[in-house]
Amino acid sequence: MNRKEQIIEMLEGAPKDAFLRFALAKEWEGEGNDPAALNIYRSIVNDQPEYIGTYYHLGKTLERMERPREAWRVYTEGMAVTKRLGEQHAMRELAGARMELGDEEDFA
């Protein structure tokens, strides 16, 4: 049984486990299946918005899928969550990713 199959099996017993869901999304990413990863990242953001690492990876997935406007919004949303939680490191990562996409005027 490979790692992805193991994660899927563990998720059967804990379907809302953010860590396992995130791990499965990373497996899908590694296989080049961005649509599958995107669905999982979005579900984590919706169900557990304070699982802050998700915002960066969701944004990067959207960028790879050539959806920069959505990525910019995800980074912005993640920055608001990290600010509220006092997570400065994550805030800087999200701000840097957003800055690479362009200025606010580009996405307003």
Protein traits:
Serine Threonine Protein Phosphatase 5, Tetratricopeptide repeat, 108 residues, mainly alpha
In short:
With 108 residues, the chain is mostly helical. The protein has a single domain (3-107), classed as Alpha Horseshoe (Serine Threonine Protein Phosphatase 5, Tetratricopeptide repeat).
Describe this structure in words.
This protein is an all-alpha fold and 108 residues long. The protein has one domain (3-107): Alpha Horseshoe (Serine Threonine Protein Phosphatase 5, Tetratricopeptide repeat), CATH 1.25.40. 80% of the residues lie in helices and 0% in strands. α5 packs antiparallel against α6. The longest helix has 18 residues, at 68-85. It starts with a helix and ends with a helix.
Q: What is the strand content?
A: under 5%
For this structure, the CATH topology is Serine Threonine Protein Phosphatase 5, Tetratricopeptide repeat
Task: Give the total of beta strands.
Answer: 0
CATH class: Mainly Alpha
Topology:
Blueprint: H1 3-13, H2 18-30, H3 34-47, H4 53-64, H5 68-85, H6 88-101, H7 104-107
Helix pairs in contact: 1-2, 2-3, 3-4, 4-5, 4-6, 5-6
